[in-house]
Amino acid sequence: MPPPFVVALLDRALRRSVPLLLGLLLSGCASLDYYAQLGRGQLALLQAREPVSRVLADPRRDPALKRRLALAQQAREFASARLALPDNHSYRLYADLGRPYVVWNVFATPELSLAPLTHCFPVAGCVAYRGFYVQGRARGAAALLREEGLDTYVAGIEAYSTLGWFADPLLNTMLRWDDERLAAVIFHELAHQRVYVADDSAFNESFASFVEQQGLRQWRASRGLPEQDERQQRQRQQFTALVLASRARLESLYASPVSDEQKRTGKVAEFERLRRDYRQLRDREWAGDRRYDAWVEAPLNNAKLLPFGLYDQWVPAFAALFRQADGAWPAFYARAARLGELPLEQRNQALAALAADG
Q1: Is residue 180 part of a domain?
Q2: CA distance 31 to 36
Q3: How many domains does the chain divide into?
Q4: DSSP state string for 220-278
Q5: Which domain does 90 fall in, by range?
Q6: E strand spans, 3-52
Q7: Are strands 103-110 and 119-121 parallel, antiparallel or unpaired?
Q8: pLDDT tens digits, residue range 318-351?
Q9: How does pLDDT run across 58-87, given as a tens digit for each residue?
Q10: Cα angle 199, 238, 176; round to 5
Q11: How far apart are CA 102 and CA 61, in angstroms?
Q12: pTM for the whole thing?
């Protein structure tokens, strides 16, 4: 299992971020040193790949590893055959990187603002983080940003998509997940290869999250498994709502005319309120389930709140779009792609209308 601060919600909100990894495609604003570490990291990952079929056929390989990879291949075949997701070499390869995360992402905001420090790149567009293949480099980058007075957060990432530029492998970092999470992330990452809109993370991640969720329902049904227990999803939604409410209050505070010192005092008080509200929710409605304790009790700042809500915002809209397509995946993807071609304001209006209709 991953460390406590990435369980449940962060499993969705952080680990599957599209990385800043294509060194040859990066914009000129990045330093040559940053280019170099991205290039080395991606090259090392590519060199570590081997066909899953070879691993499965090798009697010397770990039987437990082979069982997980065999399951992953069943999910991979299901993704293309039943969900109309790309039929390519992605997730038919395996790479053991010998570390718990493939990259570490650094998020940053001003001390008294929730506006992220963004980085823009061709293909991937603008995103609210920078990725590093070495944990020490990520921590060093975060430390430099803190010296500039910014709030920072470093998150370990266990999987990512190159949007079809490379054949993305199954990673040892992914195999710590349970069987359903492993299948779900394959559906999610392949969805990014099917439809992707530059500069609109909310669209991209909500789209992939819907494909993941609906795909997992169909995967379970195909295997004769009962419907998923919705309790964890409901808890995740409740926790997200708590964090989003806290973020909204902070945004109001930072936009107010009070002094910076008053804003700093209010910021501390707001994070204490978030902890208090969480404990009440946990104890009254979750029967003491402590899955988010470590994240809540660790230091909080603006940057740590950035990923919340982004990955679920338009899921109801895509659910409505799927119903309009009569549950036909190719028609659904075509409709989603047409939405992605709209200007941002029109796209959001259309998604809002879909969500309301749904």
Answers
A1: yes
A2: 9
A3: 1
A4: HHHTTPPPPP-HHHHHHHHHHHHHHHHHHHHHHHHHSSS-HHHHHHHHHHHHHHHHHHH
A5: 4-199
A6: 50-51
A7: unpaired
A8: 999 999 999 999 999 999 999 999 999 999 999 9
A9: 999 999 999 999 999 999 999 999 999 999
A10: 70
A11: 22
A12: 0.83
